[in-house]
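Bug #2210: token dump truncated for Cytochrome c oxidase subunit 1?
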Amino acid sequence: SGTLISVLIRIELYSSGNRIISPENQNFYNISITLHGFLMIFFLVMPGLFGGFGNYFVPIFQGSPEVVYPRVNNFSIIILLLSYLFLILSLISEFGGGTGWTLYPPLSTSFMTLSPSSTGNLILGLLISGISSCLTSLNFWTTILNLRSYYLILKTIPLFPFSFLITAFMLLLTLPILSGTLLLMLGDLHSNTLFFDPIFGGDPIFYQHLFWFFGHPEVYILIIPAFGIISIIISGILQLIIFAKQSMIFAMSSISLLGSLVWGHHMYTVGLESDTRAYFTGVTILISLPTGTKIFNWLFTYLSNPSLLHLRITSVFFFLLFLLMFTIGGSTGIILGNAAVDLGLHDTYYVV
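Reproduced locally. Full output below:
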């Protein structure tokens, strides 16, 4: 369903004017943007990359018979289905939630949107999805720490389980923040609280801080399992241990730590103080160092086996494409990490 919505967005954007969404129902474009964001992040990449690959491969890589709590795993996927139903329910209740996937107040908490129950369903779905992800993370954390083969220490386990250990830690750190934020928003929406209402002394910028404190680590939650998969694919094809494996672990740990301290770079235009902007700029650019380390280590591992320089294996082709795309994406990130540049490029197609 997320892919179908993305196709709809692309068709609508391919030329100016209305394409397939009728002028009378332009709110549906906003609904599509909102649902596409939620479905792709919380119901495709996280259950697929983190939950799916993790449950299947983590026990294999560390010689465990199963994860520590298989029934908890089962429960987490069942409630994920429930949360998906709530998201779809938001589409068909009232006029649909067209707040954007970031759910910024006061738009999302105002009854002027005409769809408070749609937003309520979205929030409820996300809360249940958060519980599901937390349970899975707890499961992986205990499995990797306590159910390894007796000869595997943390120093010697493959990069793949290590990447999942770091991802699970980040999820357990940031998801409770998101859940608390959503509960505050639910209070604003249905219980007459005024946490984010500027008219009565609330602060919508406070919501943005809370949301992006989850939102930026979420980016790394989505990419660090992919790092682990890339490492294990290239290492398996070349039959080599990744070049400077310890530095790869250190780089992933540094990325997860620094990635939790840079949420303000999503908020350069809201009126932060100049020294705050300078801090976020500095730490954001600092993240490029461990990331660059990882890219060069992958590249050195690949280049150390000249016979495979010919792109005869599809996996190698995809691996090189990943490196290329990641480098291009990362370089634009360094540019936008500068607060002054970001103020100029904000809301342009450079960002999109």
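Output looks complete on our side. The chain has two domains: 29-192+216-236, 240-352. Marking as cannot-reproduce; reopen if the truncation happens again.
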